[in-house]
Amino acid sequence: MSRADDWVEAEFFRSALTREAGATSDLLSWLRRKNEEIAAQVEEIPLTELRKWRIDPHRGDITHESGRFFAIEGIRVETDWGKVPRWEQPIINQPEIGYLGILAKRLHGVMHFLMQAKIEPGNLNKVQLSPTLQATKSNYTQVHKGTRPRYLEYFNGEKPGRVLLDQLQSEQGARFLRKRNRNIIVEVSADEDVPISDDFRWMTLGQIKDLMRHDNVVNMDTRSVISGIPFGSHSTELLKYLSALSSGDQVNTHLMNSFLNGELHLNDFPGILSWLTELKCRYELQVKRIPLRSVSNWVNTGERIQHEHHRYFSVVGVRVSIRNREVVTWDQPMIKPAQEGLMAFIVKRINGIHHFLVQAKLESGNFDILELAPTVQCLTGNYRTGQNEYSVPFLGEVLQAPAERIWYSAMQSEEGGRFFEEQNRNMIVEVGNEFPVRVPANYCWMTLNQLHTFMMFNNYLNIAARSLIAAVSF
Amino acid sequence: MSRADDWVEAEFFRSALTREAGATSDLLSWLRRKNEEIAAQVEEIPLTELRKWRIDPHRGDITHESGRFFAIEGIRVETDWGKVPRWEQPIINQPEIGYLGILAKRLHGVMHFLMQAKIEPGNLNKVQLSPTLQATKSNYTQVHKGTRPRYLEYFNGEKPGRVLLDQLQSEQGARFLRKRNRNIIVEVSADEDVPISDDFRWMTLGQIKDLMRHDNVVNMDTRSVISGIPFGSHSTELLKYLSALSSGDQVNTHLMNSFLNGELHLNDFPGILSWLTELKCRYELQVKRIPLRSVSNWVNTGERIQHEHHRYFSVVGVRVSIRNREVVTWDQPMIKPAQEGLMAFIVKRINGIHHFLVQAKLESGNFDILELAPTVQCLTGNYRTGQNEYSVPFLGEVLQAPAERIWYSAMQSEEGGRFFEEQNRNMIVEVGNEFPVRVPANYCWMTLNQLHTFMMFNNYLNIAARSLIAAVSF
Question: What is the architecture, at CATH level 2, of domain A250-284+340-470?
Answer without folding.
Answer: Alpha-Beta Complex (3.90)
